[in-house]
Write a structure and sequence with these properties.
With 479 residues, the protein is an alpha+beta fold. It is 35% helix and 27% strand. It is built from 14 helices and 23 strands. The strands form 5 sheets. Strands 3-7-8-14-11-10-9-22-23-21-20 form an 11-stranded mixed beta sheet, with helices on both faces. A 5-stranded mixed beta sheet has the order 16-15-17-18-19, with helices on both faces. Strands 4-6-5 form a 3-stranded antiparallel beta sheet. Strand 15 (294-298), helix 9 and strand 16 form a beta-alpha-beta unit. Helix 2 packs across helix 6 (172-193). The mean pLDDT is 96.
Length: 479
Amino acid sequence: MAQQKKMVDAITSMDEDFAKWYTDVCKKAELIEYTSVKGCMVIRPYGYAIWENIQRILDGMFKETGHENVCMPMFIPESLLQKEKDHVEGFAPECAWVTYGGSEKLEERLCVRPTSETLFCEHFKNIVHSHRDLPKLYNQWVSVVRWEKTTRPFLRSREFLWQEGHTLHATAEEAIEETERMLNVYTEFCQKYLAIPVVQGQKTESDKFAGAERTYCIEALMHDGKALQAGTSHYFGDGFARAFDIQFSNKDNQLEYPHQTSWGMTTRLIGAIIMTHGDDNGLVLPPAVAPIQAMVIPIAQHKEGVLDKANELCERLKKVCRAKIDDSDNSPGWKFAEYEMKGVPVRVEIGPKDIENNQCVIVTRHNREKTFVSLDEVESAVLQKLEEVREGIYNKALENRENRTYVAKSLDDITKALEENGDGFVKAMWCGDEECEDKVKELTGVGSRCIPFEQEQLSDKCVCCGKPAKHMLYWGKAY
């Protein structure tokens, strides 16, 4: 396709400076605003509307799989956090602490929730006594605080929004099945609704969640070739149950420790959307989560009948999608650029000549393709175009991932691939030794992303030490 004219000059070109482009999009598309607290942001209405759509779809998927929503406290007593040694060590550097209540010093300091495993364990201990109380399938939508040193809107902030699922099961088999089921829910959500292709896999031992026996993840590749962890699902075994003395009587009236899971997705998904689908004109939003799916633009609206017809058209479209009309006195050119920048999937133009011909013009955001459509068929045409946008941006993201996925059989191969082609996923064999995992990162700059479920036998030797390989690994630089 020929190079398209850049409509929004206020946004830095992604090829010039990807990080600046990202920040420009967050600000210009009115997704966020900075605050006086470093690392914390205001999620503005347009950005929050995207999150609300993410939340609505995911919440429906959770309820379809039998989960209920709860809400745990924001504060965790230090003594409670200390009960699971590996867990507290994993989160200690990021914890924020409350030491005063009003003007009085607290007898025990309180951690501002970085995650809620310990709170759920305390609650499960109080309510689970028999096998009849299991399983417990809970989820909560809350904010958490992690005192990050380096922050960036959506991708890494000191306070962020997320959902965290916490479940308790009678057997290891049931808990592992739950862990895998929720990873599949995340995969379906990303690929079907966000149009982001992902790789499913398991984290290495050194990279798994603090306190987990296994961590599964989905990894996505951004436009610039860096990886982003889009969601995680953890199997805890009975380690937390033992630490918190959660027991239940089984069918034979014997006491057992239950098995536990947790899984989560966060507002960094909005960052993933921006960096997977965006272009030099701004956002390109997947229709499923776009606050506005179709924007009606009246052309020559000062002429008789145009505004009436445009409003009538908008009301019709509202019955099949999230539609709005811009009847402000800004020029059509300004409106085109504004809604390009905001990533609205479909623009619907109607002017005097269109009215004469009983038609309108539909323009799709991802490729600017114009289609003349009869007003008699506009509802079905807009729905068809929304699906075309979803398919188009998914296929483009998949093509980017395939073009930026390299195969390496030596450390030199990794370095050469990255130098010649830029960042991306590197597929290479690994012996399973953490020393080799660390050495690859030290010498090439790429870390392990996951052991993919879909394994390939690229060679029989580790990319680092040459010893017999156990797994194929995805490696990459990550956000």
